[in-house]
Amino acid sequence: MKFLTWFLGLFVICFIFMGFVVDSFGKVQMFQEAQTTAQSAARAGTNAATGASVNGDAFNISGPMAATAAQNYLASAGVHGTATVAGDTVTVTVEMTYLPHMLGPIPLPPIPVHATGSARLIGN
């Protein structure tokens, strides 16, 4: 009987440990997805360059057009985030939420995931 109690205790401990490992990898994967989405949205914003090159210099970025293009990318990806434009750089911050799968029976709260990506328009 002692063996059964010891075995069940060890089983529960191993299950919880495996749950933390699986959900930790899930959070890392969610962060990578958020990072990729932020980088892609920032690139979409820099594609909103407008006008012609002035004196052979780099293209000018339209701030409102770049922010709108980045927000449109985020909306099409189904992700919440913000886009800011400073000079020739578009910075996008993405907010996502990871829901633990393996440790679902244990009432864990959703885990917020934030990632930031930026892109800069460079000249010829």
Description:
Keywords: Membrane, Transmembrane, Transmembrane helix. The N and C termini lie far apart (about 80 Å). α1 runs antiparallel to α2. A three-stranded antiparallel β-sheet has the order 3-4-5. Strands 1-2 form a two-stranded antiparallel sheet. The protein has helices spanning about 1-45, 65-75, and strands spanning about 50, 60, 80-85, 90-100, 110-120. About 50% of the residues lie in helices and about 25% in strands. The protein is α+β, with helices and mostly antiparallel strands and about 120 residues long. The chain contains two helices and five strands.
Outline of this structure?
The chain is α+β, with helices and mostly antiparallel strands and 124 residues long. Helix content is 48%, strand content 25%.
